[in-house]
């Protein structure tokens, strides 16, 4: 009998020893291969498509979730979830759009970002896999121009090879066929790896509706798309047909002289077929040869649609030696237009800036408090109950020995009452503060950014949902939680936040948030909410008059005109209401809006009004850097209407919304006979001659820079509305010249040479016309003497004098 028992025991021990091995033999064995971006390229801080290929070489299926940590900075990121069911021996592919790329390898972090959870991320177990452990892609910054070409044969655009543009030391070319062979993005963020898209007789209309809309929204958000001439362009351009700058009619030919004049070189020797074209509304001519328009542009949101009247890939143009120069001229002109319109991408990431400008103040909630009369009354009643009443009651009942526990009990009860009454809002339900800023686009849509912060009234997970085309991420860096809840410190994004997407939108789960803890979500969105400010303002002799109408379906408070770094307060505007304006200016016209400091002038806010002022200050700072910087003044106003389509799932919460609505505008200017244009009224660029890099501002005074290269080119541009035939520019005053540090020269448009100016702190040019270009630019050359570099210096400032022609 005992031998049988020993046999059973040995059998059980063997099973215990070999069961894990048997289980492992039956487990799935996953191997991952990753491709990302366009042809393996992506832009830092922009979106990109990512493809994950998973091969299961094991003997059992995998049922669970694939999680990709899409860390977007050191302090933000989420784990995006993809339900996955892959049988033994199968291979599956997962493709998705990452809304913002972050390069860990650039900082030597090499962080694992691909995870598998068998049984799902909520209750499942993580299993290891082979192959790629993270998303890898060649990352490029904004100093690299990436051009994507849609064409039947990339050799048709061979003139683009080796392209060098003025503001970009590096240019990358991508054949769109390599993207289409995988999958074209159906979200606007998926087009993030490219800056410019060229359409060479390619049928955009053959794309799916989602792909076309994504491409359209990418242009609206700041992209550039260039359409070459085609006999069937209206049909081929699909969703862009209504946004083309030209309407083509009959065909004709132009001689090579048109391109010779455009480029200034002799690289053309044949006639080129073009389409007779008419300029559409809001479009501008880039270049024309007499009545023949060769290229034109039209703004679309923050981006631009460009069209040529000649085919970009057909011979003889594509094979002529000068085609390369035409491309450079065209692309440089478009870049200049984007910069002038404030539509050029920023080196600083606006989503990163959200944290410091808007996010920090948005996470400050009003403190709970008890009114002084109520507190005094409770204390008075407490004293009356404790001293005379309690004494009399206990004495009558001869129970005075019970005072030792009754008095502390009453004290605790009163304290709990005071606390619960003061904190009733925080105890009853969660609180949400939403701060956002929107720019009114030319087509009436609103595009902007938001931060939404929650003050919890319980511990656990909190789920936010948004519709399509609204991005969602979170600030959850290394918070230690609260005294009532767990820490959220973690090195993996998916341990802190989970993003789940479907056909209707996205859900973001914030994990393990503590009691009375604060967490934030943020993102970008576009609202198809038609509305605008109807602005009719005129400036004459430093007097601003006119009216502003609110065409939005909600009221606006504290409406103001943002001119320079100041605001001219107008008042509150209800829906459809109009306010009269009559203000005296310190300058001869309104100035382009400038960035303002985010430094809050007071102490930390002690009441709701001060907290609101702090939130507005953050909005001003962010808007000054990233919203409608179109070298124009702007109208701003604030709404307490909740516009952001963010919803907190399954939990009740009170919401306090603050939204800034901004819109650039151009006032009507009525000059007297003579007038002066100050430096603040013009756009100024300062770039190094060799690398086209801006010097660093070093603080006070405002034009003090750190120059780390030997020579720079400074360009002043007169606003377009002052370059008509009605204006005559006579002279210019140049000041703040530090001649002991650099030699200053001015570019002569006639001789096409720089002429050195006198070594004086201030000087006047009596006749400015030889130095003023047709598009209103004055160029100066700063060459630091003695090979000096790495020094602080002031940049010159100019003031122009002119008169109105009679």
Explain this structure.
The chain is of the alpha+beta class and 806 residues long. It folds into six domains: 24-136, Immunoglobulin-like; 143-340, Rossmann fold (3-Layer(aba) Sandwich), CATH 3.40.50; 352-363 and 429-527, no CATH class; 372-422; 533-639 and 660-669, no CATH class; 671-804, Jelly Rolls (Sandwich), CATH 2.60.120. It has eleven helices and 47 strands. The strands form ten sheets. The protein has an eight-stranded mixed beta sheet, with no helix packed on it. Strands 23-26-21-20-34-32-29-30 form an eight-stranded mixed beta sheet. The longest helix is centred in the middle third of the chain and has 25 residues, at 372-396. The chain starts with a helix and ends with a strand. Residues 18-24, 342-347 and 477-490 have low confidence and may be disordered. Keywords: Membrane, Signal, Transmembrane, Transmembrane helix.
